[in-house]
Design brief:
The complex is a heterodimer. Chain A is built from eleven helices and ten strands. Chain A is an alpha/beta fold. Chain A has a six-stranded mixed β-sheet with strand order 6-7-8-3-9-10, sandwiched between helices. Chain A has a four-stranded antiparallel β-sheet with strand order 2-1-4-5. In chain A, helix 4 runs parallel beside helix 7 and helix 6 packs across helix 7. The longest helix of chain A is centred in the middle third of the chain and has 15 residues. Chain A is globular, with a radius of gyration of 18 Å. By secondary structure, chain B is an all-alpha fold. Chain B has one domain. Chain B is built from 16 helices and four strands. Chain B has a two-stranded antiparallel sheet with strand order 1-4. Classes of the chains: A alpha/beta, B mainly alpha. The interface between A and B is large, with 40 and 39 residues.
């Protein structure tokens, strides 16, 4: 019970199936306030479905999903959950390609989401400062006026992370942030995420073991929709069950 | 205060220039028609005033479509329905103005109702003898239909081609309904034989010049409002919804509400365009609901350049000007020409006339091009610089 009320995110006995296929099977997972967690697992382990459940895109068939000790996420939709403080980065970088880098951040910036509020919106000093600060953090200040569609793949990933930061969420869900990045970009992303984790809780889904090692956080390995192993990366990668799943049976 | 700021934000110099040109036309054409000698080279004859006035209402309709299609990604193939509903609301007012001057001389019932042996005015015709009531309906009926339709469609997350198909079905359903005599809107023949508008003879050249000016002013207002909406943060949000709808949802926005607002505003603009169209052409019948009409609006917008404000106006004027000439010269081939035009524009000018001209203009201006180029050459260098810092 203490887990349920003290933790930032609490999943217990969550299951969801699509046409009889159990994508998530009795999954339980607890994330503490301020924690960064890496989720690994082979393809089809349910990593993305798990994020869909946390962000309200998919409703679980059974189980509890509790955010911040009291909010039942299963009864809210994507927009509600986003404003409550969960930001999500997609696997494929998804930014507003037609807008400038600056406008992408400005749209993500925390604030009222209503129609009238956006129609009559005027950017405040504080908002301007926040945009500048985020662009610095994601190292895109020099590309502020560029169209997002013209950014490189890695830069788009960073811009999307910047948009998450602008939302000022309590929890960031980051799906495969370094897919398709060069080694130096991967390294920079790891350092960026470590910086972010200092004042946010973060869940990172990633295949790249080198990157996970660099993050140096607690790791959860998913397999067939439930937790296979949990602990430090060394502990998890030494787990015979994990080895069996990854190296074939 | 907030409102003036909102409207001012849209007034970039091309928009201001466009509005001024439209307002100049609103004054110059009626002046030339009414006060210049018919032999004068700049005299605009009566039939051209009517024709251009009609084009202006088409331009407003195209602009309305562009607001939802070009800026918000909603390809409506049923915008003609909102135009026709606005037109019918105006037509009902004009019918009530005929009074006892109809063929059957009934002081209250329009001719077609007498002809069908109706004994009293149906309830939904009440109030249309008052202009203010008709004007209210011109806004409320298209806006209300768009609200109900959009509420269900957007909340159910119907998008893309499925949404286009149901908008098409909507206008087709209305076409069939309005064809029925017992609907009470004149059936097949629609509403016609108008006499007065606001007490002025609808055939008089001064009235027609006034209607022309009203159409031009409505178009100028449409440009101002569209520019203000698209220039605001909301306008950026519309484009964001168009390009990556789920992204906006995970940022905490409700894209269905964004679309609903744009759709309702657009439907009201289309309805006003229809209301100005009807007194100038002198008739409204169910043919205006024909799906082909709505598709033509899409062609105008695509030809002119969607996602721009001037584009749909130019598209509507060019295509309809072409249509008037073409249907005079080679009447049988117009639909082939229209279809061919759409294919050619889609293949060769995907951004339409205005988009293509704007891109070409940007290329012709080396001064503006230079910083963009230096930016791209800077990119790898800056990246290389930023990474060692990142590792620290």
């Amino acid at each position: 019970m203490t887990d349920k009320t003290n933790s930032l995110l609490y999943l217990d006995g969550v299951s969801v199936s699509f046409d009889g296929f159990k994508a998530i099977n009795n999954l339980s997972l607890v994330l503490q306030q301020g924690e960064m967690r890496a989720i690994i697992g082979p393809n089809g382990a349910g990593k993305t479905t798990m994020m869909d459940i946390m962000t309200g895109k998919t409703r679980p068939d059974t189980g509890d999903v509790i955010f911040d000790g009291e909010i039942d996420l299963t009864s809210h939709d994507e927009a509600d959950i986003a404003t409550m403080g969960i930001g999500r980065k997609f696997q494929k970088p998804t930014v507003f390609e037609g807008h400038t880098v600056e406008d992408n951040i400005a749209l993500a910036l925390a604030g009222s989401r209503g129609i009238m509020a956006t129609l009559f919106h005027r950017r405040s000093e504080a908002g301007e400062g926040r945009i500048r600060q985020i662009l610095d953090t994601i190292r895109l200040s020099h590309l502020r006026g560029n169209t997002a569609g013209n950014l490189s793949h890695g830069q788009k990933q960073w811009l999307e992370i910047g948009m998450l930061l602008a939302q000022d969420p309590k929890l960031l869900l980051v799906d495969e942030p370094v897919a398709g990045m060069t080694d130096s970009e991967t390294e920079a992303t790891a350092s960026l995420l470590r910086d972010i984790a200092e004042d946010h809780s973060v869940i990172v889904v990633e295949h790249d073991m080198g990157f996970v090692r660099e993050l140096d956080v607690k790791v959860t390995c998913l397999h067939e929709g439930s937790v296979l192993s949990e602990g430090s990366l060394d502990h998890v990668s030494a787990d015979p069950k994990v080895i069996e799943v990854y190296l074939g049976r | 205060m907030i409102l003036t700021h909102f409207l001012k934000k849209g007034l970039t110099w091309p928009i201001t220039l466009t509005i001024l040109i439209i307002l100049a036309i609103a004054v110059a054409v009626p002046f030339s028609n009414l006060y210049l000698d018919p032999a004068h080279p700049l005299h605009v004859p009566n039939h051209l005033v009517g024709l251009f006035g009609k084009y202006l209402t088409y331009a407003l309709l195209a602009l309305a479509l562009d607001l939802v299609w070009g800026y918000c990604g909603i390809l409506s193939l049923g915008h003609g329905a909102f135009f026709a509903l606005g037109g019918y609301a105006m037509g009902m007012y004009l019918m009530r103005q005929i009074g006892s001057r109809g063929v059957y001389g009934d002081p209250v019932l329009p001719d077609f109702m007498v002809f069908l042996n109706w004994q009293e005015l149906p309830w939904f015709w009440y109030g249309f003898d008052q202009f203010w009531f008709a004007a209210l309906m011109i806004i409320l009926v298209p806006g209300g239909l768009a609200f109900i339709f959009g509420w269900f469609a957007f909340r159910s997350r119907v998008t893309g081609v499925y949404l286009s198909i149901i908008t098409q079905a909507m206008t087709y359903a209305l076409l069939l309904a309005f064809f029925r005599n017992d609907m009470g809107f004149g059936g097949n023949n629609g509403l016609t034989d108008f006499k007065d508008i606001l007490g002025y003879d609808i055939q008089a050249s001064t009235t027609r010049a006034g209607l022309f000016s009203a159409s031009a002013i409505a178009l100028a207002l449409g440009v101002l409002i569209t520019a203000a909406i698209t220039g605001s943060q909301f306008g950026k949000l519309m484009i964001a919804v168009r390009d990556a709808e789920s992204r906006t949802r995970f940022l905490g926005y409700r894209p269905e509400m964004v679309k609903l607002f744009a759709f309702v505003v657009s439907a009201i603009m289309a309805g006003i365009a229809g209301a100005l169209y009807v007194p100038q052409v002198g008739i409204i019948n169910p043919g205006e609901f024909a799906p082909a009409n709505s598709i033509e609006v899409v062609v105008w917008t695509a030809v002119g350049g969607r996602g721009t404000i001037i584009g749909p106006i130019i598209g509507a004027l060019v295509v309809n000007g072409g249509k008037s000439w073409f249907t005079g010269a080679f009447p049988e081939y117009w639909l082939f020409a229209l279809g061919g035009l759409f294919v050619l524009v889609t293949l060769l000018l995907p951004k339409g006339i205005v988009g293509t001209v704007r891109d070409g203009w940007a290329k012709l201006r080396p001064a503006k091009q230079a910083p963009i180029e230096s930016d791209t050459t800077q990119k790898p260098a800056d990246q290389a610089n930023s990474q060692p810092q990142a590792a620290e």
